[in-house]
Amino acid sequence: MRTVIFRTIAPYLSALMVLFSVFVLLRGHNEPGGGFIGGLIAASAFAIYGIACGVAAVRRAIIFHPMSLSAFGLFIAGLSGLPSLFMRQPFMTSQWWYIHIFGVEIPLSTPLIFDVGVYFVVVGAISSIALALEERESD
Amino acid sequence: MPLSGSEATVYAVLAPFAAAVIAPSLVRIFKHNAAWPLALVPAFVFMHFAGFVGAIAHGQTFTPSMDWAPTYGVTLSFYLDGLSTLFALLISGIGTFIILYSGGYLKGHPHHGRFFSFMFMFMGSMLGLVTADNLITLFVFWELTSITSFLLIGFDHLRMASRRAALQALVVTGGGGLALLAGFLLIMSLTGEANMSAVLAGDDILRQSPAYAAVLILVLGGAFTKSAQFPFHFWLANAMEAPTPVSAYLHSATMVKAGVYLLMRMQPVLGDTVLWTTILPLFGGATLIIGTLLAVRQTDLKLMLAYTTVASLGLLVMLTGTSLDKAIEGAALYLLAHSLFKGALFMVAGTVDHEAGTRDITKLGGLRGAMPITFAAACLAALSMAGLPPFIGFIAKEYLYEGIWNAPSGALVLTVTAVIGNALMLVIAAAVALRPFLGEKVDTPKHAHEGPILLYAGPVVLSVTGLVAALVAHTTGEYFVGPTVSSIIGNFEEIDLHLVPTHIGAPLYLSIATIALGILLYLRLDALRAMMTGALTAIGWGPDKGFDQAISAIVRFSTVVTRFVQAGKLQVYMVMTFIITALALLVPTYLAGAWPQNFAVPEFRFYEWGILIVAVAGLIAVLIAKTRLTAIVSLGIQGFAVAVIFMLFGAPDLSFTQFMVETLSVVILALVMTRLNLAPRDHRKPGHQLFDGAVAIAVGFGFATVLMRITELPFDPRLSVFFADYANAIAHGRNIVNVILVDFRGIDTLGEISVVMVTGLAVLALIRVRPKRRPPETGKDTGPAKTEQPKELEAAK
Question: How many separate domains does chain A show?
Answer without folding.
Answer: 1
